[in-house]
Amino acid sequence: MAVTVMATAATMTATITRRKNMETCFEPRASTKPTNPVCDCASRGFRFVQFTSPRTFSIIMRFPPLSPCRFALRAVAVTTALLCTLSGGGTVWGQNKPSAMDVLRAMMRAERTASLAATETVTQRGAPVARMRIWRAGFKRRVEFVEPPVRSGDLLVDDGVNVWLFHNSDDAAVQTKSTARAMLAAGVEKMPSAAARVTGTATVGGRRAWIVELRGRSGQRVLRRLWIDQATGVRLRAERFGPEGRRIETAALSNVRFGPVPPSRFHWTPPAGAKVTRTTGTLFTRLAPARTATSWLQYPRVTPPGYVFESAVVDNRKGEAWLRYTNGRRRFSIFQQRTPGRNTAAPRSVEGGWYWQNSGSRLLGVGLPSALAEQVAKSVR
Question: What is the pTM for the complete model shown?
Answer without folding.
Answer: 0.69
